[in-house]
Amino acid sequence: MLTLLDPDNPHQPFPPPAEALSEPNGLLAVGGDLSPTRLLEAYRQGIFPWYNPGEPILWWSPDPRLVLFPERLKVSRSLRKLLRKGEFEISFDRDFEAVIDGCAAPRPYESGTWITPEMRAAYLTLHRQGHAHSVECWYEGELAGGLYGVAIGQVFYGESMFYRKSNASKVAFVTLVEHLRRWNYRLIDCQVHTHHLQRFGAEEIPRDHFTALLQRYCAAPCAPEAWRT
């Protein structure tokens, strides 16, 4: 039975992730709000919000979980060649709002977006507080792609990416992972399986292993000034 979260009580505990449904995989709770307090607590426990416009807030913790260990990043020869050419410029936290808007924009292969106005506002607040970060990929002075996510301790939780020029999001992602490795991040949460991320070395691990890693790495210090590179 799903837990109903009180929108007026952001400190209400989440149920244990192990209580999530197997079908649909990982659905754990309904309702609540998108306050920074609730969102950060969710991420620390391996829970994330995902819902469509017009639906209540749905909270998920799927099993297995797709993750990338930064030191296991795989980059194809062709992408390495593109990176060496230096056609793209990468920045961090230069224009978070433009990145989340790019991720929320309609795509030809999708009927809508899960980044509702409420979600957008929530992550903008997290960004202003120093918890959510963006990676921008520029081509000839224009934003060509990027991604955003949430950082807690030595864990980066990827949320969404987009591109307007071929390979821009790939360049942004690879550059981010290489920086995270240098900044001593230990884990990147990719949420659910995609062949695209698997090609970069992402792998599925059991949920209980994932949550155990979070307990260790979320509590570890990581320099926030790194994002001001």
UniProtKB/TrEMBL annotation:
Q: Under what name is this protein listed?
A: Leucyl/phenylalanyl-tRNA--protein transferase
Alphabetical list of InterPro entries matching this protein: Acyl_CoA_acyltransferase, Leu/Phe-tRNA_Trfase, Leu/Phe-tRNA_Trfase_C, Leu/Phe-tRNA_Trfase_N
GO annotation (BP), single: protein catabolic process
- Give the span(s) annotated as Disordered: 1-22
Q: What is its main location?
A: cytoplasm
**What's its job?**
Functions in the N-end rule pathway of protein degradation where it conjugates Leu, Phe and, less efficiently, Met from aminoacyl-tRNAs to the N-termini of proteins containing an N-terminal arginine or lysine.
- Give the protein family: Belongs to the L/F-transferase family.
- Report the gene name: aat
The record's listing under SUPFAM superfamilies reads: Acyl-CoA N-acyltransferases (Nat)
* Keyword terms of this UniProt record: Acyltransferase, Cytoplasm, Transferase
GO CC annotation, single = cytoplasm
**Which species does the entry assign this protein to?**
Methylomarinovum tepidoasis
Entries under Pfam families matching the protein = Leu_Phe_trans
Give the source's domain of life in one word.
Bacteria
Catalyzed reactions per annotation: N-terminal L-arginyl-[protein] + L-leucyl-tRNA(Leu) = N-terminal L-leucyl-L-arginyl-[protein] + tRNA(Leu) + H(+); L-phenylalanyl-tRNA(Phe) + an N-terminal L-alpha-aminoacyl-[protein] = an N-terminal L-phenylalanyl-L-alpha-aminoacyl-[protein] + tRNA(Phe); N-terminal L-lysyl-[protein] + L-leucyl-tRNA(Leu) = N-terminal L-leucyl-L-lysyl-[protein] + tRNA(Leu) + H(+)
Subcellular localization is given as: Cytoplasm
Q: What is its EC number?
A: 2.3.2.6
